[in-house]
Every structure is written in structure tokens, then in C-alpha cells.
Amino acid sequence: MQVVQRISKEEVQKFHASFFLSQCSGSSSRDLWHRDQ
């Protein structure tokens, strides 16, 4: 169980990191860029 929890935590962190980067580099960032200009 400890191994599963440890892997799950790492996978969750990687998922959130990749999801956050994808959102920042996605259409959301483009909308903010256009709004700034």
C-alpha cells in the first residue's frame, strides 16, 4: 500500500504540473495575452 500511495502522489503531482503547464501554454494564456494587448 505504501508503494501505491507513493506512486499515486508522484503521478498526481506530475499530472497537476503537466495540466497546469498545458493550461498556461494553451488558449487560456492566449486569451490573457490578447487581453493585455
What does this protein structure show overall?
It is built from two helices and no strands. The chain is mainly α and 37 residues long. The radius of gyration is 15 Å and the shape is rod-shaped. The longest helix has 23 residues. Helices cover 89% and strands 0% of the residues.
- Backbone shape: rod-shaped
- The end-to-end distance, rounded to whole angstroms, is 51 Å
Order of helices and strands: HH
Strand content: under 5%
Outline:
The protein is mostly helical.
Indicate the topology.
Layout lengths: L1 H23 L2 H10 L1
Give the key terms.
single chain, 37 residues, mainly alpha, 2 helices, 89% helix, 0% strand, rod-shaped
